[in-house]
Task: structure prediction
Amino acid sequence: MSRYWSPFVKELVPYVPGEQPKQSNLVKLNTNENPFGPSPKAIEAIKQAVDESLRLYPDPDASNLKSMIASYHGVASEQVFVGNGSDEVLAHIFHGLFQQGSRQPLLFPDITYSFYPVYCGLYQIPFEAIPLDDEFQLRVEDYKGINGGIIFPNPNAPTGRFLALAEIERLLAVNNETVVVIDEAYVDFGGESAIALVDRYPNLLVTQTLSKSRSLAGLRVGFAIGSAELIDGLERVKNSFNSYPLDRLALAGAEAAIADDDYFQQCRQAVIVERERMAQELGGLGFEVLPSSANFLFCQHPEHDAAALAAALRERGVIVRHFSAARIDQFLRITVGTPEQSDRLFAALKEALA
Ligand SMILES: *Cc1c(COP(=O)(O)O)cnc(C)c1O
Result:
């Protein structure tokens, strides 16, 4: 606390990201990064972009990247918004599309991405957290009341559970007064994208990121796809905030990553294969593992306290994520690693469980 802070700043409750340790010998399975590197073509494109042209501002509209994302997903460029990571895209969505005069609550699940309530605090948006069912599934019936907007990740985080597109459509059919945002940070690991629905529902917005499935968390590139009117609203917010959220290196890397579909397909398949092996092994060690469509597993051990297990793993050089929130404080969220990393996880777990 400082007396120089505004009362507003004193009230903020910031997001706490997972640890980014300084030691490099740790097996880092705590923040859902991709264990495989980015496309070599993306790395090369970034290197090529390092030249004297860095004295110039980047394209404020990121038009080339937008048109590549548009053609990849079969939509028009006017339906694509890009930002400095999907977190920034989400911030503009909360600011521009959820901060409604009606003061009806924004709806999202009780167990979900913990940045949503943080943005509600930043932009003073009332919200209501709707409990997932006992299997941690979202019930669309619970979202049918009057609201100021709806947002959830699909697959959800940190549960990994996927909601079928038909269910999302059921929700859209009865909710056309407010914006519905599907946060597809993990969709490439087993979900089905709601982008297929944006042309039929002008209030649907889908966000994705290059951080997870394209291994570019360090580059900070995310995007949203929806109707031109929603995108136009986001552009107004962005152009009132920062004209150049994506720098020249980010644009070059992102464009090359989108273009290299072969590498992307290989990489996400490898993660999916390893996820299934990991789920098997964890099951063999006595864990109850939720079905996952993401690049992480959410699991609990009936005989071991989750916080104690996370600490025991940390001592053995393996970091996983533990949340102390109600309902999930006995779970661990473990990012899918390389086969070698998983083997180190299993070895450490065997010791910790013994
Ligand atoms: C990782 C993640 C994001 C943020 O991704 P960035 O593009 O790296 O900002 C957004 N939503 C969910 C659910 C995530 O897990």
In short: The mean pLDDT is 96. The domain at 40-259 is CATH 3.40.640.10 (Aspartate Aminotransferase; domain 2).
